[in-house]
## 1
Amino acid sequence: MTWLPLADGVFARRHADLDLTLGLVVGAERCLVVDTGPDAGFGAEFAAAVRAVTALPCAAVITHAHWDHYLGTSAFDLEHLWAHPAAVAEIAHGTAAQIDGWVAHDPDREDRLRRSPVVVPDAAYPARVDLGGRVVEIAHLGPAHTPGDLVVRVGDVLFAGDLVEQGAPPQVGPDADRASWVEVLGRLGDPRVVVPGHGDPVDLAFVRAQRQGLARGDHG
Ligand SMILES: [Zn+2]
């Protein structure tokens, strides 16, 4: 589990657990974490790794309201916790059902999930955050993998959450909107690097191929 430098002050962190990929952006005055991981213990390790890089005050963005992206939040001391309003509602009201659904097929994870406090994000998120010499844009491009996906852009790096997955097919669950997702993947702009929610960072050619697959009806 090491940091993958993507640009000046921009890092991805790959984890064997769930093949997760999380993010960190460091400016001159503050830092921003992208997703916090699947449980409090994991979050504690991730938070320590962040603190090994920077002691600056930190905020976090949750890319979407799937438990594996936000149940690590309680381990962080954050200035702000941002998510899309639809994701905020799901985190507040849907987490227990998500955990019940997951442990039905992965009972070994039950203790870790049930012991992870749910931290509900702020009611609104900013479209633009200046971390001190490094500006981050946070955007909702339409319903896709979930009703409330956010992407995080810093320079030519785009953190895409589960709009893109590498190493496994994108997960098209009951909360996904496939037709809109296909449209959303055409609105990512022209990033040099796209960081998926699971798997290694990819380029736009990879995203285009995944978009075509979704449009064809692949992946569930
Ligand atoms: Zn997801």
## 2
Amino acid sequence: MNNIIPWTGEDDAVIATNTDATECKRSAVELGYWKDDYIVYFAKHVDRKAPEINRGYYARVKAMEMFIHQFLERCGTKCQIINLGCGYDTLYWRLKDTTQAVGNFIELDFPSVTAKKCHIIKRNKQLLEKICNEDGEVVIRSGDLHSDGYHLLGCDLCCLGEVRRKLEAGGAARDAPTLLLAECVLVYMQPDAAQALLEHLAATFPRCVLLLYEQCNLGDKFGEVMLRNLSVRGCALAGERYCREPQAQVQRLLGAGFETVRSWDMDTVWRALPEDDRARVEALEMLDERELLQQLNSHYAITVATRGELFADLDLNA
Ligand SMILES: C[S@@+](CC[C@H](N)C(=O)[O-])C[C@H]1O[C@@H](n2cnc3c(N)ncnc32)[C@H](O)[C@@H]1O
């Protein structure tokens, strides 16, 4: 059966969300919210974002990092990370600078995004030198970048056949402990395609953790405004039905084959961060709109889904 999905105008708007995320990250990094020596290569000079946006991104990056470290603590570096809808995420390079570099790191996004990321990597020595193996070998084949332990692969995540082929080309191993990252990506996919992808990943990797970060509580007035704003930008949330009740996300992931699923809205995450961390970032810039930050935070959530005993106890307060 032919499973080619037509390219739509909406994909361009979805692809543009990557530019947005990268610019927001650079704005927060420039102000000292967290350290990322690599984001500058992916976003040229950006205008300063509003304090609530910077703080929201801080909580997002911090929450992802907390769970990534819990995953790595349990399985060490003999593991793989698969970054779904990776955009210009710099996690690979940031981990490489710590002792926590992983065995294999695979990044997937639309070919137009991975082609640009590949181009940026090739042009910047600081990025390139971190993906070269001892022989300095980096292979670019059919637009995809392969090196020892890092693979950047173009595909539409809605086409399961393509995802399978790309994961195989990237050397994904079924038996390795696997961290799956889906940061603001599944929500842009048609629900059936996203569900098929989740089922495939859960069935393929018996020892895995999925970190899913996306909108939640969209059923209220604030949520309606968020949806309207996105729709005006040509970027409707195809998967919004899973972002209304927090329970809907949990049920969907259990239905896909994950064994434990827990979800926290970002306001809860923010309040659970170590007091020192919160005090440090609160001192970085004045925030007049406290209520707005709280509203924003309560409309995003991090959801952690696991398979395998090793990961069953991952927790926000671990
Ligand atoms: C909001 S950006 C997030 C990027 C990155 N995960 C981050 O958090 O910085 C969403 C990304 O998902 C990608 N994406 C959305 N739908 C996709 C699909 N069907 N196949 C491949 N990539 C997709 C977009 O191209 C974009 O890079």
